[in-house]
Amino acid sequence: MPDRFILTHIRRLPVFRDLPPAMLELIAGAVSVYNFDVGEYIYRQGEVSRGLYVFVAGQAVLTQTGPDGLERQVGAISTNQYVNEDALLRPRTETVSLRAISPVTLLLVDRQRLLTIIDHHPELRPYLGLPPVNRRTASGERAFRGQRETERILLVTRRHWWAWVRYAWFAIIVLVILVIIALSIENGLLKTALLGVAIIFPGLYALYQYIEWRNDTVIITDQRLMRVEHQILSFKESRAVITLDSIQETNTIVPDYDLFARLFNYGTIEIKTAGEAGNMVLPMIPNPEGVQDLIIEDRARHEQQHEQHELNRISAEIDRALGFDDAPAPPPQPDDAPRPTKGGFRFPAPMRYVTPDGDVVYRKHYALWFRQIAAPLLFMLLMIAAIFLPALIPSLSAYGIISVMGIGGFILSAIWFYIADWDWRNDLYIVSDDTITIIHKRPLWLRNEDDRILLSRVDNVGYDKEGFWRSLFNYGDVRISLIGADEHKVFYAVANPHEVQSEILRRQARAQRKIAEAEERSRREEFSKYMQVYHQKMSGAAPQAASAPPPPSYQPAPPQPHTLPAPAGDRPPNVPSRRQSDNMPRPSPYGRDGGAGRSSNRPSNLSGRPPNVPRRREDR
Fold first, then answer.
1. Which of the given ranges, 320-329, 573-582, 586-595, has the highest pLDDT on average?
2. How confident is the model at residue 513 (pLDDT cuts 50, 70, 90)?
3. Model confidence over 245-301: pLDDT tens digits?
4. What pLDDT is stored for residue 104 in this prediction?
5. Residue 397 in this model has a pLDDT that exceeds 70
6. Which of 39-43, 70-74, 170-174, 372-376 shows the lowest per-residue confidence on average (mean pLDDT)?
7. From CA 269, how far away is CA 252, in angstroms rounded?
8. For the stretch 32-66, what's the b/e string if a residue is b when 16 or more beta carbons lie within 10 angstroms of its beta carbon?
9. Same structural domain for residues 73 and 189?
């Protein structure tokens, strides 16, 4: 049951004012109560914002440290006020510090916990001004081909409806003209036919524009961003993918000259990566600022989840190092590498096979193979016919030269066929755990090409299928953009390009995970060694504390007045005086006061005189 104290205060916040009571109780799960004493900092300048702060009681001041290093007060917060509303749904960095000047009680609406609640209850998004989540995803169904098991869709959108409605003006104008012409004709049959044409052709044109608009989709998930495009007349299909880690910058562009863009709230979103070739442009997206905020929020949440996961693993490693947790380290995740398949000399050679090392090898589609061997194969068949032609036609039996020429032509066509097949067979695209290799071998003395790319340099991967035959036989080009490069590396005419794209992305994610795990494992092992040594020293310090400390190698400072030892004249009887060491300073013959303040009619203090030193004659 949510705390009534929390509900009473958060329902007055403008951002939660319109929430129904049931949803407000869900939001209360992200709120915590904190108390601060005078002088404590609630947050400091430069820290990552945690969320929204609501002051229930007390006062605090906002201070800012300038370039000169001086801290200046820039504001104040008191009871029934709140601060950091901008940090509630998107990450930001604190530009000022907040320090309590009286005992403070406040509520913190934690952003990370709030986003987690929103993820589990997407019905909250419209009330908070966030784009709605595809509901079909929440049921566990796959909303698009290639969706991963752990991938959750945040948004599926298309270009703004004005993108196809704007082309309807042409259909309307044609419709009006044909209707006017039809009404002016007196022949009833011709009028009916013309009216049918006026309705069918503009209607088909508008339907075509609608289907073209609906076939283009933008998908934002918690792992990546995708743009899928289909064109009906050109039979083109393209898919571009950018992982959240690759996104460097997002910009929203609303042209000033486009009146409808401001009227209907659509614009262009430009997503930049480390390489120019990997950038993505999303034109005519509805509510572009909201989609931009969703991308930024999605990327920030992805980074925070990654950091939290690493902190949990480091904490578990430290617990094991200190002996707090005897559980063994978690086993490595099973490798999802494909099983090896046969890839030796076969006819025709396979378009895809897996080596014993787990590398996936692709060749161009059989359509390219048939295109290359079609001419020599046809010539070979003609030469076979020429060989047997004199035997089949008696009138040509005297021309034995035809058979001889046929045999020579067959040998040449066979060599031609072998070279064409060898050229296709030895163009390979190899995807391994660490690299991508593009091999173009040429027969005879021609130059070979061998291009090797590190998977860590891959920025994003996309593919294109354009044309009737490519769509029919399902093959196309896979484009690989690299970090810092302006041109793509291309797998030309490979079968099932979507599967090739998925394999590269899967290998890239696995390679990045292995590199990160190796680095983190090395850091954790090194840190755990430090912690083990520290733990051993701390555990071994307790028994040594009971033994007497070694004598000091320096002369201690004089004691304070309240800890001075008793004077030597108070020595108990029958106890000999302690002999001073030669390396210790001897007391003054006049006692501890050096004779100052000694009365002239008072005998000297014999107990303060060192031995074998004659008594000093007093002046009478």
1. 320-329
2. confident
3. 888 888 999 888 888 888 889 999 999 888 777 788 999 999 998 888 888 888 888
4. 93
5. no
6. 170-174
7. 5
8. eeeebeeeeebbebeeebbbbbbbbebbbebbeee
9. no
* Separation between Cα atoms, residue 158 and residue 217, nearest integer Å: 5
Angle between helices 288-322 and 497-544 (to 10 degrees): 40
The model's pTM: 0.56
Mean pLDDT of all residues in 459-483: 88
| Residue 116 sits in the same domain as residue 10 | yes
Greatest alpha-carbon pair distance for the chain in Å reads: 172
Q: Are residues 148 and 234 in the same domain?
A: yes
What pLDDT is stored for residue 403 in this prediction? 77
482 SS3 class: strand
- CA geometry: angle 201, 207, 210, nearest 5 deg: 145
The 3-state secondary structure of 57-108 reads ECCEEEEEECCCCCEEEEEEECCCCEECHHHCCCCCECCCEEEECCCEEEEE
For the chain, give the percent of residues with pLDDT over 70: 76
The secondary structure of the chain in percent helix, strand, coil, rounded to multiples of 5, reads 40, 20, 35
Domain containing residue 14: 4-128
pLDDT band at 613 (very low <50, low <70, confident <90, very high): low
Neighbours of 96 (CB within 10 A): 20
Task: Give the total residue count for the chain.
Answer: 620
Range 433-459 burial, b when 16+ CB lie within 10 A, else e: eebbebebeeeeeeeeeeeeeebebbb
Boundary-marking domain end, from 98, 128, 158 = 128
User: In total, how many domains does the chain have?
Assistant: 2
Beta bridge partners of 51: 110
Residue 44: which residues within 8 A CB-CB, separation 6 or more? 94, 97
- Residues 158, 88 within the same domain: no
List of residues 6+ apart from 90 with CB closer than 8 A: 293, 296, 297, 300
| β partners of residue 477 | 464
More confident residue, 345 or 405: 405
56: which 2 tokens? 């229930």
Amino acid, single-letter form, for residue 26: L
* Burial tier of 175 (Cβ tally within 10 Å: 0-12, 13-18, 19+): buried
Instruction: Indicate the residue type of 553.
Output: S
360/357 Cα distance (integer angstroms):
9
Q: How far apart are the C-alpha atoms of 86 and 111, rounded to whole Å?
A: 10
Q: In what order do the strands lie in the sheet with 51-57?
A: 31-36, 104-110, 51-57, 82-83
